[in-house]
Amino acid sequence: MKRIILFLVLSCLAAAARKPNIVLLFSDDAGYADFGFNGSRHFKTPCLDELVTQGVKLNQFYVSAAVCGPSRAGLLTGMYQQKLGFEENNVPGYMSPNGTTGDDMGLQPGVPTVGNYLQERGYKTAVFGKWHQGNADRFHPLKRGFDEFVGFRGGARSFYAYKEGDDFRPEDRLEWGLGTFKEPEYYLTDVLADEAIKFMERNREHPFFVYVSFNAVHTPIQPDPKDAELFSALEGKRRKLAQLTWSMDRAIGRILDALDAMGLRENTLIVFANDNGGPTDASTSSNWPLSGCKATHLEGGIRVPGIVVWKGKLAAGVEYDKPLSTLDLLPTFINAAGGDACGIEGLDGVDMMPYLTGENQGRPHQTLYWKKENRGTIRDGDWKLLRFPDRPAELYNIEADPSERNNLAAEYPKKVAELYKKLFAWECTLERPKFMLKRLYEEKAMERLDQFRKQYP
């Protein structure tokens, strides 16, 4: 009997000492309101609705950019991606001012990612799904801190296998590892979930980090045929989007069930989030009650759904109302793994856990910033300033007016000036966007000016 008790005690101590697994579930282009747990009356997400009851719902969770690529760069590095000169999507075929193409635009090599940091802590790491951090081999996830990759390098692709004669780009192909391409044999959302589950099963004896980067619910809006009869109360794209969301939720449920079956849920930190606000043109997403959509700095473009679950560490069924950011995921994960994110120079995120547990009652971020080219936005406390290149700045009190309907700029000109200066001071610390490093437009203009002066001295 004493031996049995000793064995149980040692087993419990070993389980307590083991580093937690980390599972990041990430949707693509989902609307803020297109989830049951965020108030949708039409879209059904039962698995995520159940997950949110087991942890903390983040009511003011922000991304660092309003479009996919830069947003993911901020998440992966824990830094404002503009510091790295990454503030545009790596658009295929796009010809930038310095002559580089979309394939050469990506997350700067040599900058550590969350995968690198967790590998150093002894974790097995993997990405399943969308990468969108550069198409060239030097940007590949297997060279950026991840042990395994099944997904695609670009920003969007079909949910079905491409066939000979289909129109697609090289970075759209489904890749298994580095340089091995094989199209999915069934619906891609399910393939990604299955591969994530296999990875967890292979590594159940080790701490692991799995980043499940669904391409759902990004265009093309291609729901699983077996869901074709669902959501009959909706029509057109909206109905298809609901079906697409349903299949993603079902896949998430299978991943969570697999953790339960392996007995790993108790020691797994689980996060669900989305990369930016939902678009309202191609897929008719709903960001209600927020204004704006993907690619804008209004709340509907940068505030996203968020869930954090860690059994035994976080209370269940609670909500957190202060602003947090996907920049905070990297330091949170590092500290959860036994590291010290405070010792990493240049991080802009904070460890969320002291705030979510209530240990720290303060504000995680007094100030948050967004920038794309000559558009800039700052949230300082409850005040938010949006600067535009073609019209006066707008000012909102987000706590009182989350829908941004009451522009207070004319009433508070001193606040506008204060925030404008603070935003500009931050911008002065950033890298010039990589696609603008060589000022060829200015050089050509000077060449033409020189020619003009020679012709007309």
TrEMBL record:
Residues 1-17 form the signal peptide. The keyword Signal applies. The keyword Transmembrane does not apply. Transmembrane segments: none annotated. It holds the Pfam family Sulfatase. Keywords: Calcium, Hydrolase, Metal-binding, Signal. Belongs to the sulfatase family. This is Sulfatase-like hydrolase/transferase.
